[in-house]
Amino acid sequence: MASTPRPQQLRVGRLTKAHGLKGAIKLELYTDDPERRFVPGATFSLQVPDDSPWHGRSLTLRELRWYNGHPVGFFDGVDDRTAAEGVIKAILWVDVDEAETAEPDAWYDHQLIGLAVVRDGQRVGEVKRVEHFPAQDLLIVKSGGREVMVPFVAAIVPEVDIAAGTLTVTPPAGLFEDLPEESEPAEPESGTTGDAE
């Protein structure tokens, strides 16, 4: 019997800090479309450490409010500050239908894996996987016989062209190649001084 394909997921936010005493949690949003993603009843898969009591669970949003320009979420089953603090730092993922309109500058991991990594018009490697961290995502690029960790930020990855199968990088010096040893002034051999006597 054929298995049902697993839905693709999109990372849309992170829980950052408990807010108040009634279970509210401040959010960091990773979506340009919070009105569509964060509606009452929306369910989020949680990315948490394996030993977290929230591992393998999901959260359902009751309400999203804005306080001083910051989004704050209220979730089913998170009814006090202690519960809120127990789920802090979780990354929120949603199941998405690939047929729906894609958000600009948002890609699924499976779309990035296998892309040719190009620098100055030359192929320097291939995306092997994507690692998600609270501060930023990292692209793990196979380059030569090693894996290079490339921060997935606009300054270093200015262009992703899914149709062309390429991902353009403008990395800092030394990310994809060993930097030449800087020539240092030769030190005098031990036991000698700089001046002849």
Quickly describe the structure.
The protein is mainly β and 197 residues long.
3D structure, described in words:
It is a single chain. This protein starts with 7 loop residues before the first strand and ends in a 29-residue tail after the last strand. The chain is mainly β and 197 residues long. The strands form two sheets. A six-stranded antiparallel barrel has the order 1-2-5-4-3-6. Mean pLDDT is 81; it is low at 1-6, 181-186 and 190-197. It folds into two domains: 8-96, Beta Barrel (Elongation Factor Tu (Ef-tu), domain 3), CATH 2.40.30; 110-168, PRC-barrel domain (SH3 type barrels), CATH 2.30.30.240. A hairpin with a 2-residue loop joins strand 9 (137-143) and strand 10. The longest helix is centred in the middle third of the chain and has 6 residues, at 81-86. It has helices spanning 34-37, 81-86, 109-112, and strands at 8-19, 24-29, 43-47, 58-67, 70-75, 91-96, 116-119, 122-132, 137-143, 146-151, 159-161, 166-168.
Q: What is the H/E order? A: EEHEEEHEHEEEEEE
Total number of distinct structural domains: 2
Here the CATH topology of the largest domain equals Elongation Factor Tu (Ef-tu), domain 3
Strand content: 35-45%
- pLDDT average, as an integer? 81
CATH architecture assignment name of the largest domain: Beta Barrel
